[in-house]
Design a protein that fits this description.
The complex is a heterotrimer of chains A (292), B (706) and C (318).
Chain A (H helix, E strand, L loop, with lengths): L23 H18 L1 H4 L31 H37 L1 H15 L3 H9 L6 H11 L1 H16 L2 H8 L4 H37 L11 H8 L8 H28 L1 H8 L1
Chain B lengths: L5 E12 L2 E13 L4 E5 L6 H9 L6 E9 L2 E2 L5 H7 L4 E4 L3 H4 L6 H12 L4 H14 L5 H4 L9 H13 L5 E5 L7 H18 L2 E6 L2 H7 L2 E6 L2 E7 H6 L4 H8 L41 H5 L5 E2 L5 E2 L32 E13 L5 E6 L3 E6 L1 E14 L4 E5 L6 H8 L7 E6 L2 E2 L9 H6 E4 L13 H11 L8 H11 L16 H13 L5 E5 L7 H18 L2 E6 L2 H7 L2 E6 L2 E7 H5 L5 H9 L41 H5 L4 E5 L2 E4 L4 H5 L21
Parallel strand pairs in B: 3-8, 3-9, 6-7, 7-8, 17-22, 17-23, 20-21, 21-22
Antiparallel strand pairs in B: 1-2, 1-4, 4-5, 9-10, 10-12, 11-12, 13-16, 13-18, 14-15, 18-19, 23-24, 24-26, 25-26
Chain C lengths: L1 H28 L4 H6 L5 H11 L5 H13 L13 H36 L4 H15 L2 H15 L15 H35 L2 H8 L4 H39 L4 H10 L3 H29 L1 H4 L6
Helix pairs in contact in C: 1-12, 5-6, 5-8, 5-10, 6-8, 7-8, 7-10, 8-10, 9-10, 10-11, 10-12, 11-12
The chains are: A mainly alpha (292), B alpha/beta (706), C mainly alpha (318).
Amino acid sequence: MAAPALDRAPAAPRRRRPARRLPAALLWGGAIIAAVVILIALAPAIAPYPYDEMNILARLQPPSAAHWFGTDEFGRDVLSRVLIGGRLSLIMGFGATALCLALGVPLGLLAGYRRGRVDEAIMRVMDVIMSFPPILLGLLVLAVGTPSFWKAVLAVGLVYVPSMVRLTRSVTLNLVSEEFIVAAHARGEGAAYILFSEILPNAWPPIAVEASLKVTFAILLGASLSFLGMGAQPPSSDWGLMISGARPLVNSAPWVALAPGLAMCLTVIGINLLGDGLREALDPRMVRAHRQ
Amino acid sequence: MAEPLLAISDLSLTYETPRGALQALDGVSLAVEAGEAVAVVGESGSGKSSVALAIMGLLGREAMLSGSIRFEGRELTGLDAKARRELRGRAIGMVFQDPFTSLNPSLTIGEQVAEPLVYGRDLRRSAALARAIAALGEVGLANPAALVTAYPHQLSGGMQQRVLIAAAVIAGPRLLVLDEPTTALDVTVEAQILDLLDGLRRDRRLGMLFITHNLGVVNRIADRVCVLYAGRVVELGSREEVLGSPAHPYTKGLLASLPRLSLGERGRRIAPIPGRFPDLTDPPAGCIFAPRCPFVEERCRAETQPLLELAGSRAVRCWKSGALGAWPAPGPPRAATHPLPAQGSAPLVAAQTLSKLYQRGRAGGGLAWSRRLGVLPWPRLRSEIVRAVDRLSLAVGRGEVVGLVGESGSGKSTLGRIMLRLVEPSSGRILFDGADITALPQKALAGLRKRAQIIFQNPDSSLNPRRRVGEAIGRAVVLHADGRVPDLRARVERLLDRVGLPPAYYDRYPHQLSGGEKQRVGIARALATGPRFIVCDEPVSALDVSVQATILNLLGDIRDELGVSYLFISHDLSVVAHIADRIAVMYSGRICEMGTAEAVLAPPYHPYTEALLSAAPTPIPGAQRRQRVRLRGDSAPAAAERAGCPFHSRCPRKLGAICETMEPPLLEPRPGHSIACHLPLAELARVPPVIPAEPCARACGGFDPS
Amino acid sequence: MAFYVLKRLLAIAAILAVMSVLIFLITQILPGNVAQVIAGQFASPETVAAVAHRLGLDQPLLVQYWRWASGILGGDLGVSLVMERPVAPVLFHALGNSALLAALSFVFVVLVGIGLGILAAIRHGGILDHCASIFTYVGISVPEFFWGIVLILVFARYLDWLPSGGAAAWGEGLGPWISHLVLPAATLTFTLIAHVSRLTRSSMIETLRSQYVRNARAKGLPERVVLLRHALRNALLPTITVLAIDVGWLIGGVVVVEAVFAYPGIGRLLIFAIQHHDLPLIQASILVIAAIYCLANLIADLLYAYFNPKIRYGRASA
């Protein structure tokens, strides 16, 4: 090679990616979620009272030093119940999202990669699922027989599969026509390699952002179902069911409803912040804007 | 002397970035007189678009501007928003680069052309629409009255650009700012638009600021030229001066690194501009071009260069411009040239009557009824069959470079991908090394995949952004090796070295590379399997001129050293003429002319080849005055008009009905040269050569030392 | 365009048909022995068989479906098992109440949500934008039932301005009628406004960055014209799709809000039916709600097509 023909860089690359600061939303969201998850995970150890210990003498106590969030109509400690109840709400959020990812991502990849009839078949099924309003689909699955928490997780997970399929499919469709995918075909890669080693690593950022949204949707929808009596069943409890149970007490003991409600809001805001921060950190347009 | 129409002086533009202040423009001065076209030329990052946006007052809030922009004696910087707005459209019009995104998709053409009058000149809507029809006619659109109610998506790219021009001039501006107005268009359409702009300038005595990266276009349109490098004016002067005897080293380099549309180019290396574009947040001390300049001296690195006035209106930002020689010629190729195979030996790859049909559904196209089972009426969406490739035959010999030229939508990329079995043909055969591979299942194609590869156009899309360079290249090595490859890293580093990249690039990610470097990685990846045949799909189209030259040299060297065959696809005739042994000209899925490069570039021409050649802009002074063939219309025929010769709807030499109905015969002016046309050979041969003779050999870089 | 409408109508009909099968299968088949559930855990086998016979459960599946579906097509939604009354009048009375609540909220959502989103986008980065984004953050993070309870606490308990639940009949006068609607409607609106304004904002910001908006500015158009004529129209296209999705959300909200405020609508009817295993009532109300949702989607699709010239005029070759 003749030397002048090089647009060779000096030893250090000039177009180094500038050290990017993590978005504030990501840090705040991460901190909130870490705190919530740790508190809830340690709930059995740190809860001041057993969550189902009744104390008729201490019914409907307002918040005090002994009971930070007061007590409910059976004299149970609301703080302990919020901590324990959070477990089911988080399991609902993450479990349903995991289910939705496990079903939605492979289906979306397949539809976007294969196109044609496979795509058509998958998308028509999704259309049918999507033509139910979310809560209705949840209720439909739970409608008959005895409601149970795990059925609710299943129902909520299924509700959000179509949107995950659609997103994954459209990301895949965009990627499939990228030249580096054509290059992979040209060197004779198989479908599995292309899907999982070439497409998926580039598809996951939008999927991750979408999944973080789904966690909040699932927590909210799960709580709604519990609130309607279709989710967690007594004596176990999640935040939705706690609020539902506290509904008649709103006038006399509002803290019983407010405590789990605020806990849920805090959690959901935390996850939303995390999702927004994630979007900001992963959005290639933002990256490019940073570079210019 | 009276004040010029537009006078920019000492314009500087700074952006705050996370890495410090970025100096996008530094002391830019230039003037435009009424009725004069001034071209601002530069590569990407030169800041040429910022000049346009600064004049229009459309820079974002984060831009820090200093200096002065005077229009008809009135200072524009510091004007309040209202005063600026009143100037836009009425005094200064602007046309942007991309017609596809610059028109509002949900407003009719008429509304968009008429609205500067409605909102700026307080005309009634009906009167404004009438004026819009006249303006659409003025920019050469057929049937303007019907176009008024059309929507942008119903128009072709060339028509959209005409609409944008009509909207920019309808309110009677005295200055027109054009930001790469023809870059997104095909070369024949570009020629039409340039003619239109030239006419408008004459008729209306418009001042024009024409921003472009293309020196050929500059030669076609500009009276004076301003060369911009890294936000600084490096040279100013008349077109003849700047293109004919460039004074600044950068201008010399730019001109030298252009592949020329002329005979005897094959095998010649182009002289590129070495080095990389400077980091504008940390520009080099002294002359900004010093790190890439072959004439550099100690003084260049020490002193910031002022813009020196020369005779006439000429100015150069180089203290030794008077004493410079020609741009240094490139070194000879490293290895001995692979001899071309003898004529008539079996080709390496051959396409035989290949076709590729797509069915395009047309939303709102209505229903077509057919009968099922004899009686049942069966509704079907009306669709049209698009013949991307139409019964086309093409062979590539061993060690041969076949250039495939065509405009967008001609099906050239599809053809390239079919020949690699990346797209399945609808009919026809593909032979590779004598074996029919048309019907082989994908799993049985390992042999082809190893020996045939592809290089892409877009450096940003051709590398997986989440893989290191080494992994991307190494994967191809591993995939086609039997068993493990113990010396993988060493082999990849050898490949990197082959394409001129240091071994340290093994661990880099694509986003850490420049466009040219990415393209080199793409070439290394294609070489990794040791291919005999490479489809180069517009490999230099997305690159700046100076980088384009290095990639063309690299591809030429590889061909010479390894004896690889290329199918070299490009829309740019000069690039193809530079590298190809044989050229095939493709139009609407068919090949209309094919032959050796010398044969295709000289008469007799197919009428389409003739039009392409005459439309191709070249930066040779005087070439702009040559006779030009102009095509009607700007898009390939719809399916319904495809009978006969596909080119008949735009052909300037159309004979008559025979062209619309009969497939043209293959004329053979000499063995190996074929032209598909109804015109008799004798008549085609009467056409004078379209390629201009070079006044001075290329080796002197366009500068005559005598 | 006509073809597009036809296509959408056919698709909706097909989806409704598939849905009816799904609803039927899930409610009728999945639980195992419906008759056992209805007759009670301790019923004798004879009772269960009698119940099964009364419901027609001993007949082949296809016959059962045919009976049900043909009944619906003829306007007969069946007889409620628990109330022992025809389903249709009960259902449509409740539906009327819900529709009122939903329509009221929807109008608010459209007006306020879109307006807020546009303002935030125009004043991108300003104080209004920041306030709006905090508001939307809280809005999309608070479930309707909790928000409803907070409203009850504030406006019914502490301020005592509004009733905490139920609905008033027309006969009781306009005042009570409206006052019963305010809190449920406000609850429904809150979340959705947050959602709509958030998406309108981002789509408007994207449009304002587009080439054609820049081109419109370069033509010297007044900012008002650039915003309203060039940006808004295109920015609202995605919002139409979002609104259709939000109708689904609204329906979910209606179910929950009706439970919170003891509002006699179709959501409460459905929950009642599910709790009492009233099969015909469950099937009918789910089918009706789903049909309304489909209709809303159809309207959104048509609006989208109407405002998008690419669909309205097709792709004519030049």
